[in-house]
Amino acid sequence: MSTETITTISPTTNKPILTRQGPSDSDLTSIPQRAHKAFLKYRKTPLADRKKIVSKALELINDRQDDLAKEITEQMGRPIAYTAKEVTTAVARGEYLVKIAEKALEDTPGEPQEGFESVILKPSPQTPTIAEQVHKIFVEAGLDEDVIQYFHCGDFTKIEKMVQAPEISLVCFTGSVQGGLAVQKAAAGRVDCRVGLELGGKDPAYVRSDVDLAWAADEIVDGAVFNSGQSCCSIERVYVHASIHDDFVKEVQKVLAGYKLGDPNEKDTNVGPVISKAAKARIQDQIDDAVNKGAKNATPENKSFASPPKEGNYIPPALLTQVTHSMQIMRDETFGPIIPIQSVASDSEAIALMNDSNFGLTASIWTRDNAKGQELAQEVEAGTVFVNRADYPAPDLAWVGWKESGKGQTLSAFGFEQFSRLKSLHFKDYPTQ
């Protein structure tokens, strides 16, 4: 049986740049079988030795950050000015988890834990080489090649077959709500397969009246536009107290006027293309819907916004005001460089609007009054609530989604729970004569 050919299209040029072959039916059977066989041996490896392997792999990833950065820019369109930092940030999070692993996984009375099955990676068709690089690096660091495997696939029926393989005990998926529901459905016929999902977001920010406007504007624009808004925890809607609304909008305009939309391979580019033609069309549809329903496009003049590269999926950052929750831009995930700002009269109105969403990944509150910020954070329905920052998954805090943003958790000591299983050992002394 022939396998599928998966083609990666450059978001910068809309031309094919890579092809990979999907798995055969026999691959779908042999990959999990090899993984399970490798785990039966690897499970006997002491934690100290495992930590050494991971630490070595992280060192190699850090050493190769420039090569990995170029691949991310080529395949995703993220500006080269930022991609190396993405690699070093991943390394830093890994180093933190290695540091706390022994404490997080120590036996407790009545609840020893065993965990860390073999891993099978299924990368996005858009970034096929990153999984290949991770596999290569971990094997080089000393891990058995069957303990960490990968396969390329764009056919969900084959992915479904992999999920249903009896050797698979946990599936972690990052992507859309629709994709997450499909993965969950695929695993629904099995009692012994857990599912962790990191899905969509519509992350709100609330700017209180006591902030420094220029500082807050710079932070909000960065949180909304970084990576062309294509971050799971990017700011997607902004609520601003009415008393500072107009002045805050002017400050945001000043910040946006200094951004550069363009070729992600140029080091002075702030904003590159979005991932696909479909993404560009979806984002534009949300802008059009908002404007047709009364929103004002308040985007400042910017030469790079007016004349982006002719090829590629370039969509200029946009600032929208006079928006309401009747508009798609305030309800549906955008995943693009759009900043919709809505005026609010009070803290209570802001919190109510922030919680008026099917999503709950992150949220942020911006205020000089830290105590008030912490108080309001308790009322926000989201897995992570930031005060005076955004788009920053800290490794010592659990990364978790509420509502339709997902289930399960990663990062922090709590992150190990998803990847481990409890086992109770109950012993009674043998009777003496």
Tell me the layout of helices and strands:
Layout: E1 5-9, E2 16-21, H1 25-42, H2 47-63, H3 65-76, H4 80-104, E3 113-115, E4 119-121, H5 128-140, E5 148-150, H6 156-163, E6 170-174, H7 177-187, E7 194-198, E8 204-207, H8 213-225, E9 237-241, H9 245-257, H10 277-292, E10 296-297, H11 303-306, E11 318-321, E12 338-344, H12 347-355, E13 359-360, E14 362-366, H13 370-377, E15 384-387, E16 399-400, E17 402-403, E18 406-407, E19 409-410, H14 412-418, E20 420-422
Parallel strand pairs: 4-5, 6-7, 8-9, 8-14, 9-12, 11-12, 14-15
Antiparallel strand pairs: 1-2, 3-20, 7-18, 10-11, 13-17, 16-19
Biased composition (Polar residues): 21-30
Domain Aldehyde dehydrogenase: 3-106, 118-424
Region (Disordered): 1-30, 294-313
Description:
The chain has a 7-stranded mixed β-sheet with strand order 10-11-12-9-8-14-15, sandwiched between helices. Strands 6-7-18 form a 3-stranded mixed β-sheet, covered by helices on one side. It is globular, with a radius of gyration of 23 Å. It is α/β, with parallel strands linked by helices and 433 residues long. Helix 2 (47-63) packs across helix 5, helix 3 (65-76) packs across helix 4 and helix 3 (65-76) packs antiparallel against helix 5 (128-140). The protein is 40% helix and 17% strand. The protein folds into 2 domains: 5-199 and 405-422, Aldehyde Dehydrogenase, Chain A, domain 1, CATH 3.40.605.10; 204-387, 3-Layer(aba) Sandwich (Aldehyde Dehydrogenase, Chain A, domain 2). The active site is at 198. Its EC number is 1.2.1.3. Residues 1-13 have a biased composition (Low complexity).
